[in-house]
Design a protein that fits this description.
The protein is mostly helical and 272 residues long. It has one domain: ABC transporter involved in vitamin B12 uptake, BtuC. The protein is 84% helix and 0% strand. The radius of gyration is 18 Å and the shape is globular. The N and C termini lie far apart (41 Å). The model has no long low-confidence stretch (mean pLDDT 88).
Length: 272
């Protein structure tokens, strides 16, 4: 692609919005993905995505802004999953499965009983490059900045809780508080990613770069940097494929991140 044509594409307001939002979501997903993969709680993104789908369906049926319902609903679901895991003697996978299947059932019922917005619900389920408004950009910038700032501010505590909860608690770290913080930040990231990546696919974008980084890096900080780089590169490749070949944005980005994961497999096997 000639540079003049590339400049024209990037200067397109629609593409520019997608690039800004996608880059921010990529960074948030990469940071939290490392924590979730190491804590073996990676599927919480999938469960929260199902809740996001149900919240969007309910919001559209009620005629209100989807994000106004999705944000508090997904955050509440994330906190509820963590509460079930810690206080209700329900394993993390069981808690996620219970919330995810219940939310999916509600979303399907609401969608089937309503009419006139199924295409919009589909866009939220699987992502759409063409649904990002200027308001979405400002909201994404604000919330992504909060996620990144909180993660960096409490980086050392999150690291301690991720690797050794017992030692962290013995040194005075409020482990429960940081569990809920991780859940809150993940919920916000899932909501931000729904519009472009899709509620059904955002969890894969959280997991795949972190899994790849785990195979390439030897330290927690190294994994964070590696996951961030892989996530941004996957997003760039997916966006390019989506634009050039008229493919779904979310699926293209996830397939790109999956490709990087598959390419990393021989390296770990060789170094094992």
């Amino acid at each position: 692609m000639p540079m003049s044509e590339f400049g024209a594409v990037v200067s397109n307001p629609l593409i520019a919005r997608a690039l800004v939002v996608g880059a921010l979501i990529s960074l948030c997903a990469a940071m939290l993905g490392v924590v979730l993969v190491l804590k073996r709680f990676a599927l919480i993104g999938h469960g929260l995505g199902e809740v996001g789908f149900a919240a969007v369906a309910i919001a559209m049926a009620a005629g209100v802004a989807p994000m106004a319902v999705a944000i508090p609903a997904v955050v509440a679901a994330g906190i509820f999953i963590m509460w079930l895991n810690e206080r209700a003697h329900t394993g993390g996978d069981a808690a996620i499965g219970m919330v995810a299947t219940a939310a999916l059932a509600v979303g399907v019922l609401v969608s089937s009983l309503s009419s006139g917005f199924k295409n919009d619900v589909y866009n939220y389920m699987f992502g759409s490059l063409y649904g990002i408004s200027a308001g979405d950009v400002w909201l994404s910038v604000a919330l992504s900045s909060v996620v990144i700032a909180l993660f960096l501010l409490f980086f050392h505590r999150i690291f301690a809780v991720t690797y050794d909860e017992i030692h962290a608690q013995a040194t005075g770290v409020n482990v429960r508080f940081y569990h809920f913080m991780i859940s809150f930040l993940t919920a916000v990231t899932v909501v931000l990613g729904m519009r472009m990546m899709g509620a059904m696919l955002i969890s894969s974008f959280i997991i795949f770069p972190a899994m790849t980084a785990r195979r390439l890096a030897r330290s927690f900080k190294g994994m964070i940097f590696a996951a961030a780089g892989i996530s941004l590169l996957s997003f760039a490749c997916g966006m390019a494929a989506s634009y050039l070949f008229d493919l779904p944005t979310g699926a293209s980005v996830v397939c790109a991140s999956l490709l990087f994961l598959l390419l990393s497999l021989p390296k770990r096997a060789k170094g094992a």
